[in-house]
Task: structure prediction
Amino acid sequence: MAQPPELCPIYRDALRICRPFIVAPQVHWEHLDLAPFGIKVPKSLRIDPTVLASQRFLTWIERLDAQTFGPQAMAMERWVFYDCAEWPSALFGLAARPRDISPMLRERFEVAPQEKVWVPLSLHVAIPTVAPGEFFEHNVGSLGQEAGLKGLGTFTKALGCRVLRARTLVGAAQWNGRALTMHRRFGPLELLTAFTPAHSYPRTLTYRHGTDAALLGRVLEDKAAPSVESTQLVKVDERGLIGLQRRIERGDRCTLAGPLVERARGLYAPIRVAT
Ligand SMILES: CC(C)(COP(=O)(O)OP(=O)(O)OC[C@H]1O[C@@H](n2cnc3c(N)ncnc32)[C@H](O)[C@@H]1OP(=O)(O)O)[C@@H](O)C(=O)NCCC(=O)NCCS
Result:
């Protein structure tokens, strides 16, 4: 087996106080990689949602989701976690001891500093699609900013993909959202849609990127993604995005080639179009 990647400093820092967890029925655990890149999920953090003892942890997951997705009105009901994620797939994330998080976070999770429990600070949910090895990234949430841990979202996403043994990842993200910077670390991102009326927010893009061990290892070592030359700048407004969507529908292969660019006239996306 290839050597595990040498974690870059901020991910090593996160592991000083965080441990990985999974939430999945015990009958599915054998299908998961419970030591992604050698980082073992402790037995006490293998959470089975079908048993009563998991109730408090599942409440914390719901609170984590409400804190990260609530402001965008996209928080999930508990039954959605159970039906659409915990049974068909697995939740993955990083958790910390109450003594290692801020009083504000302890208050939100209703835990006392001396309690010997683990509270979830980040979450990755990807659901298998009918295409073998392909997963849809349904949720990445992180309280890294509140917990003073840089890069927690990226770290969680990379390990979460490995736990599921995903080969490719598809997901939806808003053009103006903070998450796009995180997804780009796994890039370049192939665009499957640029304007998406099927989503509650049509200014959503659908991306695809690989998740093989070499790519995830590169992210964990913080090595730059392979560069792609853009062929045009597309304005991130309804007209620009619909134009790009039409090209995708015509069969052009479009890739987000770099970070969005702020200009006096608005925000632009550097796109590589291959016809
Ligand atoms: C999007 C989200 C998951 C990002 O989580 P995060 O913990 O802030 O994680 P990131 O990995 O993006 O890293 C945060 C910072 O660390 C930096 N970072 C990440 N990896 C790094 C590395 N290897 N080396 C140095 N810096 C790194 C990032 O550039 C970013 O820096 P900035 O704050 O100066 O911009 C979080 O903001 C969130 O929960 N948002 C709400 C829910 C949401 O929109 N989810 C995405 C749905 S698609």
